[in-house]
Amino acid sequence: MTGTLEGRVALVTGGRGGAGRAVCRRFVDEGAHVYAAGLSDDDDGVEGEPPAGEFLRFDVTSEDEVIAGIAAIESARGRLDIVVNAAGIEIEKTVEDTSLEEWDRIFAINVTGTFLTSKHALPMLRRSDHASIVNFGSYDGFIADPKLAAYCATKGAVHALTRAMACDHGREGIRVNAICPGYIDTPMLEQFYPDGVDPADALAEAERVHPLGTIGTPTDMANLVHWLVSDEARYATGQLWVLDGGISAQVQQMRF
Questions:
Q1: Is 151 noted as a catalytic residue in this protein?
Q2: Annotated catalytic residue within 151, 183, 193, 235
């Protein structure tokens, strides 16, 4: 690794699972002090690979917990340079089948959590010479997979919020971007595979519909996030960076 983040302090929500875990690992390897924020410090990652970063209890839906978590970083480190809003959930239902409770919950985590974390991180970010926020959007914020109505709605909201924050805080030296992944090899994707279908067959079909013939990995996401928070991306802000193996670039073809 290159040590591009040496001395910087990063907060990654959802830092103990899926893509957030890979982001924490990449940041630590690049020299950052990382707070892996979430509800549990349980090790649910790759066998034999220890979790990266210092765990921080952090419920993104609770303003009191968000404020306390940010204050803990201020007390311990006195600075914050990077925020990655990776916490998120998925609900696989149509609008008609989605309850109001489910709708409120997914918005609380995916959208309100991004809002609260960013809002209360801003005072410290303003003091940084390398301030960057990366939000987790999705290609589902542009196009829709079936039976993901609420999830698609939350990702569209995150995309709009990303652009708004970039406009509002760019002159304060704070860059804000979103990454918009497609199919990534995480437990969330496995939950989306149809019931009764062999996981290996489902993976093969997922790979088939991509122009690259493969799906993404959490490391692919971590690589893009690392570039966005690095000084190499100093002119990049307010953008939605699609990382989907080209699936959204083509009309799906009929199989004969």
A1: yes
A2: 151
